[in-house]
Amino acid sequence: MNERNRIRKAIPALVMIACFFIGTTTGYLTNDLAAGILIGSGTGLIIMSILRMVMKRKKKTPAEDANSADE
After folding, report:
1. CA distance linking residue 56 with residue 47, whole number of Å
2. How far apart are CA 53 and CA 56, in angstroms?
């Protein structure tokens, strides 16, 4: 279980690095490296934050949903 949690924490960082390299490569190919780096970093940060929110979300059981509706 601990190994699984460690892998789940590493996934958003790997996506960030992948977006950075994709942006750098695109910028290099279009002869605008600075814009490619900034676009890749920005996209990576946005996707990383979304992934962290999705992965932190707990799956509620039906009993927990019923209890929250009563309050």
Report:
1. 14
2. 5
Cβ distance 37 to 26 under 8 Å?
no
CB atoms within 10 A of CB 61: 9
Model's pTM, two decimal places? 0.70
Q: Which of 51, 42, 46, 45 is nearest to 11 (CA)?
A: 51
pLDDT, one tens digit per residue, over 20-55 is 999 999 999 999 999 999 999 999 999 999 998 888
What does DSSP assign to residue 31?
A: T
Average pLDDT estimate for 1-25: 88
Alpha helices in 1-71 (DSSP H): 2-29, 33-56, 62-70
Q: What contacts 12, CB < 8 A, 6 or more positions away? A: 47, 48, 49, 51, 52, 55
